[in-house]
Specification:
This protein has helices at 3-6, 19-30, 50-60, 73-79, 94-107, 130-141, 161-164, 177-191, 197-206, 211-224, 229-236, 241-253, 256-268, 273-286, 292-308, 315-338, 340-349, 352-367, 371-380, 397-403, 406-419, 432-441, and strands spanning 37-41, 86-90, 118-123, 147-153, 168-171, 381-386, 389-395, 424-430. The chain has 442 residues and is of the alpha/beta class. It folds into four domains: 3-171, Rossmann fold, CATH 3.40.50; 177-236, Helicase, Ruva Protein, domain 3; 241-334; 350-441, GMP Synthetase, Chain A, domain 3 (2-Layer Sandwich). The protein has a five-stranded parallel sheet, sandwiched between helices. It has a three-stranded mixed sheet with strand order 6-7-8. Strand 6 and strand 7 form a beta hairpin. The longest helix has 24 residues, at 315-338. The radius of gyration is 30 Å and the shape is elongated. Mean pLDDT is 82; it is low at 336-353. The structure holds zinc ion. Zinc ion (ZN) binds at residues 61-63, 68-69, 71-72, 74-75. Zinc ion binds next to helix 4.
Length: 442
């Protein structure tokens, strides 16, 4: 049996996380104070219908003590789907949409034939049609004692208020990293798998919060190897965090030879370079505040690779070309800054107009306080002066969003108006491609 089936929760105790929900439901079952209708509101990551099924069994279990027992006839009937009194409908699936009205209107009103209570689980209930909701509401207004509804949704705001007000609502939480790793560790111990916590952490990371996926990955890796970070990354073609930090520190050294060697090294380890970009970007996002300026510079760089990667014959080539381009550009910026003589000769060759624009830029930068805005203006702006207009082009969407935040935009416009009075100012977004086209046409 697959591990995720073997370790699927089958009573309240084995549901991972959701302590509050579990405690209340257990108490209601114990004191026989169950509601006739429930709404389970959960983010997409929580184990979908398993809690609903456990509740359905607990309602019908004939055992005296801890319910559900999973052993009595009723529990077994539900587990094996051998009863018409237990109906599970997925409102999101087209093939079941027609079934819903028919099930609700025609069948719900008949008493159960084999179970104590008839149970309807409707998953993604917000997808029901208006007429289906009306049919449901009609029954909920005067629910027969033998009928229970368990409605589940990922979008509570789309469920009519009239329905919600007749239900007991439970909010499920996303299963925490801690809980998932704890569960994986439990399974490892039960199954005698050799493991390291770093390996489990990596599995948590790629499973994106889904416990079921995490257990599937765990099983796949365990078949061949001990569960270490190294093996998980080898097997699932993903990079451990150590690899990301090493790569980023190499990028920061500006040594192209080393950077290119590192890219080839990643490739030789069978790391998927497209996924690696996502990992880098989310790593930088997580650590943004630690070194904002440098991390934003890196986000811009890797985002550009991410956007353009499909245009290159191989991902490695996209990395190399774009990093090379950026480094050249970056180094030019630094050299013009450090050697004034060179800057002067270069300036003289350029048109007077450009000099004026450069002046505006320098003046503006000296006036600004925010390091991020300064850095974007320094590296990602182009300015056009047409008669009485100044058009500031901000390259890349991310930068544009930062610049046009009300607080940043206001300061920028104020300072520009001060530097160039009598001119109108406009800030526009431009893509890298458009920018190069503009350069060519000039
Ligand atoms: Zn039972």
């Amino acid at each position: 049996m697959a591990l995720y089936l073997k370790y699927r929760p089958n009573n309240f105790e084995t549901i991972v996380g959701q302590e509050q929900v579990k405690d209340i439901l257990k108490a209601e079952v114990k004191q026989d104070k169950l509601s006739s209708s429930y709404v389970f509101f959960w983010p997409r990551w929580t184990g979908k219908t398993s809690t609903a099924r456990i509740l359905a069994k607990a309602i019908n279990c004939t055992w005296e003590w801890e319910k559900p027992c999973n052993e009595c006839e009723n529990c077994k009937l539900i587990d094996s789907w051998r009863t018409l009194d237990f109906v599970e409908i997925d409102a999101a699936s087209n093939t079941q949409v027609d079934k819903i009205r028919e099930e609700i209107i025609d069948k719900a009103l008949y008493p159960p034939t084999s179970l104590k209570k008839k149970i309807y689980i409707i998953d993604e209930v917000h997808m029901l049609s208006k007429s289906a909701f009306n049919a449901l509401l009609k029954i909920m207004e005067e629910p027969p004692a033998y009928l229970n509804f368990i409605l589940a949704t990922t979008e509570l705001h789309k469920v009519p208020e009239t329905i919600i007000s007749r239900c007991e609502v439970f909010n499920f939480k996303r299963i925490s990293q801690e809980n998932i790793i704890w569960r994986l560790e439990y399974i490892c111990k039960q199954e005698w798998f050799e493991y390291e916590i770093d390996g489990l952490k990596l599995i948590w990371k790629i499973s994106d919060g889904w416990l079921r996926d995490a257990i599937k990955y765990l099983e796949q890796v365990s078949i061949i190897w001990k569960i270490t970070a190294e093996n998980v990354s080898k097997f699932l073609w993903i990079a451990p965090e150590r690899q990301i930090t090493t790569f980023l520190s190499t990028i920061s050294t500006d040594n192209l030879d080393n950077i290119f060697t590192e890219i080839e090294d990643l490739q030789s380890k069978w790391i998927d370079l497209t996924n690696f970009l996502k990992d880098i970007l989310s790593y930088l996002d997580e650590h943004l505040l630690e070194n904002t300026e440098e991390n934003l510079r890196l986000i811009n760089l890797f985002n550009e690779i991410y956007v353009n990667i499909k245009l290159f014959p191989t991902p490695a080539l996209a990395y190399k070309t774009i990093i090379w381009n950026k480094k050249i550009q970056f180094n030019e910026n630094t050299t013009t800054k450090t050697t004034p003589e060179k800057q002067e000769t270069k300036k003289n060759e350029e048109k007077v107009e450009t000099t004026e624009c450069e002046d505006i830029k320098t003046k503006l930068i000296s006036k600004l306080n925010s390091p991020i805005v300064k850095w974007i203006i320094k590296n990602f702006w182009e300015i056009d002066e047409e008669n009485w207009n100044i058009i500031v082009y901000i390259i890349s969407n991310t930068n544009f969003q930062i610049i046009t935040k009300p607080e940043n935009k206001e300061i920028l416009e104020k300072e520009l108006a001060w530097i160039c009075p009598n001119k109108t100012i406009e800030i526009k977004n431009i893509t890298k491609e458009e920018y190069f086209e503009k350069q060519l046409s000039n």
